[in-house]
Amino acid sequence: MFYNANANTETLTNVTISGNHADGTGADGGGLFINDSLTVRNTIIAGNTVNGGKSDCSDSGGNVVTSSHNLEGGTGCLFNGPGDRRNANPLLGALRNNGGQTDTQALASGSPAIDAGLGCPATDQRGVARPLGPACDIGAFEAAAAPPAGIPAPVLGKRFNAVPLSGKVFISLPAGAARASASVPGLKGRTFVPLVTARQVPVGSILDTRKGKVRLTTASTDAGKTFTGDFGSGVFQVLQSGKAKAKGLTELRLKGASFKSCKRGKKSAAGTSRSKRTVRRLRSKVSGRFRTRGRYSAATVRGTEWLTADRCDGTLTKVTRGKVAVRDFRRHKTILLRKGKHYLAKAPR
After folding, report:
1. Which residue(s) pair with 308 in the sheet?
2. Cβ of 137: how many Cβ atoms within 10 Å?
3. Sign of CA dihedral 299, 304, 309, 314
4. Which of 13, 220, 225, 19 is nearest to 106 (CA)?
5. Which member of 88, 102, 145, 217 has the lowest number of beta carbons within 10 Å of its beta carbon?
6. How far apart are CA 127 and CA 218, in angstroms?
């Protein structure tokens, strides 16, 4: 990266500069070459190379003004602010599709950049909400939170971790549980108990988040990697295949409620219409491979925020952040939705 402002000082915030190379004899600054003042905050500069000279940072009459909480692989950037780390290995993964609209480098477990940032933007480069742990991460990628103390890592296709975040959350295990909560309409024979603390539960469990929010962490086919999502405002069953070809995709299948009250509206030239009343819904914000499934469509994502709502007239998908691939079951068609867009998979007339 070459910076030559000759004007006001600019700022890099939560940026990852890695894997770059400066060619030529005696080249300097494989990561960052500047000849003016540049403020850097919550940024990783590491793993850059040159044919000679300084590898990560080099100045030519300018200087890097560190704000705080940066990480560099060497000492050439001269980071010396609060929370700065020098000669540190950020443990970056390969540049790849980790969700979002651009490729990123994920932070591996144990990276010194995890939970080491301060005052980060609300989302990372992929659009994933920050923070996912006690504090935000340095760089462009926000890593999934580690399992709570005493909770083992999730197991692909068998068990996942559930942490109540707010309100009242209830859970029904596949084999049943002890004391019952208030019943869930449309789910006879299931026993629900309050989820009051983090716990590991089997795939196939049903969660009731109509008056609360829960964070789920599921396993991936990549060793040590997990997917994390926050879900609320609905009742859903958690399903995940253990097969390698599924790549850890977790499905949240909307459950409960009754569609008996869905009445057809007045007849028109186009035929008989149905009510737009919402019967059940689920709000989701995730990092990783998740899919929500309603009556007439399913929405698959790799990191975004969206709403799935089963209405009398069909299944509505509305995207708040990122993009979602919606599969319309009746039309046998997949529609790609971006931020601010929505799609209704219509119920049969």
Report:
1. 282, 317
2. 26
3. negative
4. 225
5. 102
6. 19
First to last CA, the chain: 57
Which residues, listed in sequence order, are joined to residue 206 by a DSSP beta bridge? 172, 237
Residue 142 DSSP one-character state = -
pTM (2 d.p.): 0.65
Question: What pLDDT tens digit does each residue of the chain (349 aa) get?
Answer: 655 555 556 789 999 999 888 876 555 678 887 777 788 999 999 998 887 665 788 766 556 667 799 999 988 888 888 999 999 999 999 998 887 778 999 998 889 999 999 999 988 998 787 888 789 999 999 987 777 777 899 999 999 999 998 899 999 998 644 444 455 666 777 888 899 889 999 999 999 999 999 999 999 988 778 999 999 999 999 999 999 999 999 999 999 988 988 876 555 445 556 789 999 999 999 988 999 999 999 999 877 899 999 999 999 999 998 899 999 999 999 999 999 999 999 999 8
Q: What is the DSSP letter of 56?
A: S
297 forms bridges with which residues in the sheet? 328
Query: Which residue's structure tokens are 């789920």?
Result: 216
Strand partners, 162: 199, 216
Per the CB < 8 A criterion, the answer to whether 40 and 65 are in contact is: yes
**Cβ contacts of 179 within 8 Å, gap of 6 or more:** 193
Backbone angles phi, psi at 262, to 5 degrees: -75, 110
Give the separation between CA 340 and CA 318, rounded to whole angstroms: 7
CA–centroid distance for 258 within its chain: 31
* Total length of the chain: 349
Q: Which residues contact 270 (CB under 8 A, 6 or more apart)?
A: none
